[in-house]
Every structure is written in structure tokens, then in C-alpha cells.
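Mods, move this if it's the wrong board.
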Amino acid sequence: MAETAPTWLLLQRIADRLTEIRSDRGYRTDIGTSVALEPAQHPDEVAIGLTLASLGIQRDANKPHGRHRLLQGLAEATLPASLADAHAQCHAIAADIEDALDDWIPLPNALPVQVEDIVFLDRPEGLPVVAVQVALTVRYRR
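Not the wrong board. C-alpha cells:
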């Protein structure tokens, strides 16, 4: 059997790191108890969930002749909009994700995960949830 694709391995390692986000480990939230790599794993609109997905892979323009790549990903947390502090929780989750990934290297052939953008969504597409999307980039050598 062929080995796992390096980009999928990177996503798995990042997901594993995000499972560390728990209040008993010094974080603000417990979003780490509900991390998934497939969006279908959080179908319930009343569940709090964090999904990690890839957005694409690009050649690293800073290393045009090498085997360096950029994996772009998105960590999206959704919370029921009915929670009295849903928006405050979104900010806490974003801060927890940044803290968990700060200066952390997912694999020996990768650089630290970079948080690029954070977007807060209020009831996207009319859903009864609020969401925070954290865009990530990982530079790695294939």
C-alpha cells in the first residue's frame, strides 16, 4: 500500500494539535473535543464543532526552483447562534487556534503553521449558527 499523501498527513497532524484545545489544558474553550477532517461529521445544527479542510496547494513562489509547496487550509468552528455568548466564544476559539498553532511545526519538512486570516460569520446562509473561519498556511517540502 502506498504511503499517505504528505498534505493529508499535514492536515491530520494539525487536527491532532487542535484536539489539545481544552480548558483543562489552559485554553479558553473546549473546541478540541470536537475536531473533524470531514464537514459531514458535524451535521447537527445544535452541536459545536471544528472542521479542518484543505483549500488548495500552491508552489512556494519564494522557492520557484525547489520542491517547496504551500498548503492552504481552513479551520471552521460553528456554534449554535442561540448561545448567549456565541460571538464571544467565536473570538475565544480563534484565539485558542492561534495559541495552539503558534510556532508549532507539524512535520520535520514543514515550517510553522501560519494563521493568515480570521473571519466571523453571523448566521451564514441563514443557518442557526455563528461561525469563525481561521485560514491557515503551511509551507513544506515534498
